[in-house]
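Q: Sequence in, structure out?
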Amino acid sequence: MSTDSAILRVAGSRQGDGAAGLAGAPVTSRGQPQAVVGVALWVFIGVATTLFTLFIAAYIMRMANADAAAIAMPSQLWLSTALLVAGSVLLRHAGVSAQRGGDGMARAWRWLMAGGACAVAFLVVQGWAWQLLLARQVGPAGNPAGSFFYVLTALHGMHVAGGMIAWAVVALRAGRSGPAGGWRIALLARYWHFLLLAWLALFASFTWITPEVARIICGVP
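A: Exactly. Output:
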């Protein structure tokens, strides 16, 4: 009986230690959604970057042909670029303020709203630029540069529109989650940085890659 009692006491103490260890162990399940969403966002950014890169490469090769002609970019695109830069900076500030907690959440909400307004304004100005090009008789057909411009700006605009959906979800949850939801704003800001870099690459390609430059890049005499 004494041996059985000793065995039971040892087993009980081990179970108690295990329970205490579990109670004292850090809970990582709360960090898992942040890590999973963060990795998924990086994967999506990688795929989208590859897509834009392939389109830019195709644009360069098409512009190297003898029938290619560059189009003058509307000055409104500089305004849309500035709006996208402002939105990226504002969302970055929103993420930092949200993670500080306290009064930072109020500031984060204001930064978040301002960043969303910049995104909406960006899409409006992009549509304005489309109208100006159409008024100049530069349409999606008939000019290779025009065709690529409309396709790529539309593709980028779709990514911005998708970001606006994510922005709306984050904005709805920001008030309820408090500082703990600051990681969502930070991931949203990361996506906006990607949108900015993608647009800068597109804008630079449309502005500076003329048929002469494209022939030099492709080695066409």
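The domain at 32-218 is CATH 1.20.120.80 (Four Helix Bundle (Hemerythrin (Met), subunit A)).
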